[in-house]
Amino acid sequence: MSATDWYAHKSLENGVFWIQERFYESGNRANIWLIRGSHQDVVIDTGLGLRSLPEYINAKGLLGDDAKRKNPLLAIATHVHFDHSGGLHQFQQVGVHKAEVDALANGDNFETVTWLSDREIVEDPAPGWRARQYRVKAVTPTHILQEGDVINLGDRQLTVLHMPGHSRGSICLHDKESKMLFSGDVVYDGSMIDWLPYSRIGDYVRSCERLVEMVKKEEIDQVMPGHYNTFGSKRLHRLASNYIAGAGICHRASACVVKSIAGLALRASNSQSACL
């Protein structure tokens, strides 16, 4: 299957493209965001990497032919989980938060929580492809990100906000001028996951408190999440507030149990994959 068949995209306002993997039918299917700037373009999250994302972007002419864009396309992962980081190795420039640099550079498929099944891939990307063979490929980041860093695209800037909880290196990217937040898996319009090996509920609560404060300060109008559909500031406030309210003792206890089980399952799954 070609890259042009594997992906599909929508053009949104303000130089933003929404890309998805057509044949990955799962709640884990991540949104891929392409943002055009006057001097630098950025991809936020890269999907599974089963077909070439750069090839698709070029074939569809999403970057145009503006000579001012001298820098290679920069791919940034909001965190290193497999559904967001699998395609990073396809890019010359790669950015990730400093807390997850080692996991990405070492190809740590435990921390990337690689968990993919054949039934989620409804059309094989290549003959004989099987999910058990899938691994996130190691890549050494060229951009090690931390809180407050600014990604300068020329006519727009994206500020890095470290928002741990879902993972230890989870970030959001905030376009302050347009009041647009690329939130990764910190928040999306669904059940927020806080029971993975490097999830921490206390961190997640503090990250959600920060999001609530940003809404109160009218710093966010639109959220471009890591999964599902976009939403506005009112919905963001409700999602973040609901998580804070629900993160009590009972929730923490049940999450701890699920976290232990998930960790064991991930280790077993990735140990088997490594032996194939």
Describe what this molecule looks like in 3D:
The protein has about 280 residues and is α/β, with parallel strands linked by helices. About 30% of the residues lie in helices and about 20% in strands. It has helices at about 5, 55-60, 80-85, 100-105, 200-215, 235-245, 250-275, and strands spanning about 5-10, 15-20, 30-35, 40-45, 75, 95, 145, 150, 155-160, 170-175, 180-185, 220-225, 230. A 7-stranded mixed sheet has the order 1-2-3-4-5-6-7. Strands 8-9-10-11-12-13 form a 6-stranded mixed sheet. A hairpin with a 4-residue loop joins strand 1 (about 5-10) and strand 2. The longest helix has 27 residues, at about 250-275. The two termini are about 25 Å apart. Mean pLDDT is about 95; it is low at about 270-275.
